[in-house]
Amino acid sequence: MTASGAFLKWLLLAALVMQHGTAEVFTSIGHMTDLLYVEQELLSSLEKHIAEQELRLQRVKRWKEMKEAESHVATSDPEGFLGNPINAYHTMRMGQRWAALENFLQESAEGFVSRLAERRALFPSEEDRVGAARALLRLQDTYALDAELLASGKLPGGLCVPLVSASALSADDCFSLGRLAYSEGRYARAEPWLGHALSQEGVGDEGTVGASDVLDYLSYSVYRLGDVQRALNLTRRLAVLDPDHPRAQANLHYFEYEMAQAAATEEATTDDAEGDVAAADDDEEYFSEKEEYELLCRSASGLMTPRRQRLLSCRYWDGRRHPLLILAPLMEEDEWDRPRIVRYHAIVSDEEIRHV
Length: 356
Prior knowledge:
By secondary structure, the protein is mainly alpha-helical. The chain has helices spanning 3-17, 29-52, 58-76, 78-82, 85-92, 94-104, 112-119, 126-143, 147-151, 171-183, 187-199, 211-224, 228-241, 248-264, 266-282, 284-300, 306-310, 350-355; strands at 314-317, 330-336, 341-345. The chain has three domains: 29-122; 126-153 and 168-266, Tetratricopeptide repeat domain (Serine Threonine Protein Phosphatase 5, Tetratricopeptide repeat, Alpha Horseshoe); 304-354, no CATH class. 64% of the residues lie in helices and 4% in strands. Helix 5 runs antiparallel to helix 8 (126-143). The longest helix is centred in the first third of the chain and has 24 residues, at 29-52. The radius of gyration is 25 Å and the shape is flat. The protein starts with a helix and ends with a helix. It comes from Petromyzon marinus (Sea lamprey).
């Protein structure tokens, strides 16, 4: 792996697995690697279950074969597989996928379903899934990634690990990310995810999201972004698709009223806009620093030249003759030069890691 690929992989992985909370969370690549092997074990049990009920479970067998191919890629190189944030997010959604299968198999409660119930405690929680989704949105903010490109599993800086078709985000995944951003009031971030979900509605491994659900969230997000005309068009589409939708008619009348009022209140709207500009000036320094930070991260994801890469090295570091490090110096490895990023090896023992 190139230095640039390694650097970006650790940035992406760190953002995806660093979560906090009172419940147990998946905070290391080791935890998520265990999940991959749990899934591999479940797939082995599922094979036996299918053999016993071949005729009734043809649909399950097709699903199993798809997941088995993904599991083979994942377990052949767990670290590389989880280095892709799309794969890491899919891993956090493992519980939802297997729960859907469990519902389908309720008529046969023995065998594989019993094994699946035993492993449920090992699955990521809802808190873990939401944490992974928030991390994915943070990556998108920092690196200015396009939602459609990110949903396809393509990442900057040459970071590409083998992907199977299921590793691209489905309409269900995109809707979940858009709805999370929506619930946090981040409408500018919600809009592209919801728009992409709408463009591929009906496609995906779960396929539970409907166009009416997406249109409901998307129309209001667009309205909050100030595009009342587009919000009105989307709501009209929703009303045609689902005439009995509980909010469609009310929103339709409201947006029509807003459009009618817009012309009559143009002068007041202009005054409000000037006030918004004045308020934005107060935050100019904050946004400038934030933008500089994000630009730094994006520039770091570019390819490193061979000349710069040759200057990276490994060394033993004694902290300028620090008494505690003279006999046991730290192993230091250059990961990046501008900005300078180093990795320290073997600082914490396995026992200390387990304790933490």
